Amino acid sequence: MTRPIFVSQRTVTEQRYGETRDALDQRWASVFSQVDILPLLVPNNAKVAAQMIDALPAQGILLTGGNDSPQREAAERVLLDFARQKRLPVLGICHGMQAIQRYFDVPVLPVAGHVAAEQTILIDGKQETVNSYHNLGATTTVDSLEIWARAADGVIKAIRHRDLPWVGIMWHPERCAALSARDKTLLTQHWGTP
């Protein structure tokens, strides 16, 4: 059974046409098909995000990677407020994990050495290799967020909320040539068994 999931998008400015666009990496389409997700793409407009919440029966929220913008932050806050109220599952990928951290007032600051096709980190105490494409990160957290992955320099690479079904990871499953078993399990089980 395919599950409808609200999906956030990055903001892209197209200078040639004088447009600001919402965009999603096309590689996500392959991931969605492998884990039976129907993406409901949310524009970076808080009012429209709220209207979509009222009109569409989503089973969870995926906050994707990408850049920050005030419009995106406002739309994602609407999604997170709704998810908190309804106890919906949320999965944050890179920027999406940072959005969860900011939602709980965790400081996200510049970090160095975290842009690499491969980086060895500790996930649940076990060494694993992931990709890493971020210049911002956190080394501390709050009581409500549990750390379950860290880099050697202490930068947090994955979080879980202690009460809500919210998870964040700092690597990009969609940027891998093939979806790893670890990430496929995470993306499948996080929304519940279809």
Walk me through what this model shows.
Strand 11 and strand 12 form a beta hairpin. The chain has a nine-stranded mixed β-sheet with strand order 4-1-5-6-13-12-11-8-9. Strands 2-3 form a two-stranded antiparallel ribbon. The chain has a two-stranded antiparallel sheet with strand order 7-10. The protein has one domain (3-189): Class I glutamine amidotransferase (GATase) domain (Rossmann fold). The model has no long low-confidence stretch (mean pLDDT 96). It has 194 residues and is an alpha/beta fold. It has helices at 27-34, 46-55, 70-86, 95-103, 181-189, and strands at 3-7, 10-14, 19-23, 37-41, 61-63, 90-93, 109-110, 115-123, 126-133, 136-137, 145-150, 156-161, 166-169. It starts with a strand and ends in a 5-residue tail after the last helix. The radius of gyration is 16 Å and the shape is globular.
Helical amount among residues, as a percent range? 25-40%
Q: What does the radius of gyration come to?
A: 16 Å
Strand content: 25-35%
Distance separating the two termini: 5 Å
Q: Choose one word for the global shape.
A: globular
- Structural class computed from helices and strand pairing: alpha/beta
The low-confidence runs, each spanning 5 or more residues with pLDDT under 50, are none
Per CATH, the architecture is: 3-Layer(aba) Sandwich
The total number of structural domains is 1
Question: What is the top-level CATH class?
Answer: Alpha Beta
SSE string, helices as H and strands as E:
EEEHEHEHEHEEEEEEEH
Q: What is the CATH topology classification name?
A: Rossmann fold
Query: Can you give the mean pLDDT?
Result: 96
